[in-house]
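Worked example

This section walks through a single chain of length 348. The input is the sequence exactly as stored; nothing has been trimmed or padded.
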Amino acid sequence: MKSFEIPEFYRSPLITSIKQKRKQQDKLKKDFEPTHLDFGVIEIFLARHFGFCYGVENAIEIAFRTVYENPGKRIFLLSEMIHNPQVNRDLKESGVQFIMNTVGQMYVDWSELKSDDIVIIPAFGTTIETENKLKSIGISPLEYNTTCPFVQKVWNRSEQIGRKGYTVIIHGKPLHEETRATFSHSSSNAPSVIVKDIHEAMALSKYIKGEVPLEEFYTEFKGQYSSDFDATKHFERIGVVNQTTMLATETQEIADFLKNVMTSFYSLTEKNIAERFADTRDTLCYATTDNQSAVKGLLNVDADIALVVGGYNSSNTSHLVELCEEKLTTYYIENETKILDKNRNFAL
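Given that input, the structure is written out below as tokens.
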């Protein structure tokens, strides 16, 4: 897999050595047992997989290279590069301005942008509407595009099944930047609906089976369906994709549930299930799956607490916290300065 040139201060010599050793020992990534570090007075178990993934390192490399290669130019980011507060602070300190926050509130009005400004698309991608807005100003949305390749894979798969007549069900958080972007791209090719969890998938199934009045769909899922959605016909063929940072097991649970609904309602078999349900298992992000599997492996050890480090608005990190909380007292911190007791700060 490609390696990226990112600032050295994002790498730890110790962690890099540990990761390289584990990679040499387990090239196929089949072993999810944690790394055991014994310091005598304290023992630390590190998850087998953690840290920046392929898509994040790709985004960081592009962003900092853009700053380095364009001195004196105005450089903007649509919103947070990733949900990592340190990376976003470092980019701001490098002179990068943010156009909006994570929910779309504008910091810089579109009218203030000029055609010779640089606008970086974050790793989550962006909506077609925003791409068109940038084009109308004279700014190419693809020239400095850091959209994660695995997010783009979801978009491509959505387009493929949409062109075959399937409705796209998106498992994601409706207000998350990635889900908004995926919904926008999906809706341009197919009827689309967002479900945030298995409970909403169950609610959706009642409309598929005609158990509740179809007109209630538009109220229950307000803001989560495409503008051309017709509940009388757009539930006949479906496929499920996801926001790449959602729990992989939950996405699979939703897909399996809806597959069973379609199988039962239309009296299908494995031989003809594709007539009504598209197989989209290949859209699950490998890095998200690996990190979540590594946390499950970590929870097999006898530990006192779990410490999860990451941005407080990170979907990826929050799901790892959820997994840890199932077994251990868990502390969710942004960085080392949050390690405190009543008498002292343990910042290193």
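What to look for: The longest strand covers residues 167-171.
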